[in-house]
Specification:
The structure is a single chain. With 261 residues, the chain is α+β, with helices and mostly antiparallel strands. The protein has one domain: Alpha-Beta Complex (Fumarylacetoacetate hydrolase, domain 2), CATH 3.90.850. It is built from seven helices and 18 strands. The strands form five sheets. Strands 4-3-15-8-9-12 form a six-stranded mixed β-sheet. β13 and β14 form a beta hairpin. The protein binds manganese (II) ion. Manganese (II) ion (MN) binds next to loops.
Length: 261
């Protein structure tokens, strides 16, 4: 009798462990839910598949000149990361100009042009020399920022969410698979507002390479397929207002454009 109870309990524990498991695998029996929550996906160029987004990581101050303009000393301090919610993604198709809403609560809305790496193979404690094996593909994106609120939260030692992690704060292009695009260690990255160049740099000016970012990030968080990493912006971030058109470019990828509305 005791033995039977033991097995019953262990079965319960096992079921509980599976149900509460954080691994984002496909549930064997989808749970009944009272409503649907939309999944976030990004088209994959050259396929009819879409890339399911699990988490959005962003690296801060990864170009020396930008680090200085933000008031920091870029002496290769360990990289730091923050997150945006998955549904901050605003997919922008190549060759289109997407309407991007000017967000509430800010009077100083900034662009940040960034290379984005998409993870296809998860892991933790990933060594730098193996890190690029974890990349599924690349795209380009904007880390849109309510700069006034971000600065205020820093001054007040509060979290950055309201400045960085709001609705539609992550305009992004389609994913280009590594097998098509290769890796991105160098090449021009620029951003124009209404045709005037605002940001212009080279990816080789990143303080932490994509491989180093993945390696460092995997020490803090276990990475999973579907994670994407915004790799930081060069110097000369600045404001936009309603009516402005942003165009951004990275060599080897189609440009991304949004109009602030
Ligand atoms: Mn950024």
């Amino acid at each position: 009798m005791k033995r039977r109870i033991f097995f019953q309990n262990s079965a319960l524990v096992t079921t509980g462990a599976l149900a509460g498991c954080a691994v984002p695998s496909v549930a064997q029996q989808p749970a009944k839910t009272p409503f649907q929550v939309a999944a976030t996906t990004i088209p994959i160029v050259g396929t009819d598949a879409v890339f399911p987004v699990r988490r959005i990581y962003c690296i801060g101050r990864n170009y020396a000149a930008h680090s200085r303009e933000m008031g920091s000393d870029p002496n290769r301090e360990p990289p730091f990361f923050f997150q945006k919610p998955t549904d901050a993604v605003q997919y922008v198709a190549a060759g289109t100009v997407a309407d991007h809403p000017y967000p509430t609560l800010t009077k100083n809305y900034h662009y940040e042009a960034e290379l984005v790496a998409a993870i296809g193979v998860g892991g933790r404690d990933i060594p730098v020399d193996k890190a690029l094996d974890h990349v599924y593909g690349y795209t380009l994106g904007l880390d849109m920022t309510r700069r006034d609120l971000q600065r205020a939260s820093g001054d007040e030692k509060k979290p950055w969410e309201i400045g960085k992690s709001f609705d539609k704060s992550a305009p992004i292009g389609a994913i280009h698979r590594v097998s098509q695009s290769g890796h991105f260690a160098k090449g021009a990255i620029w951003l124009k507002v209404n045709g005037t160049t605002k940001q212009s740099a080279d990816l080789n000016q990143m303080i932490w390479s994509v491989a180093e970012q993945i390696s460092k990030l995997s020490l803090a968080f276990e990475l999973f397929p579907g994670d994407i990493i915004y790799s930081g912006t060069p110097e000369n971030v600045g404001p936009v207002v309603r009516g402005d058109v942003i165009a951004m470019h990275i060599d080897g990828l189609p440009d991304l454009s949004v109009k602030i509305v």
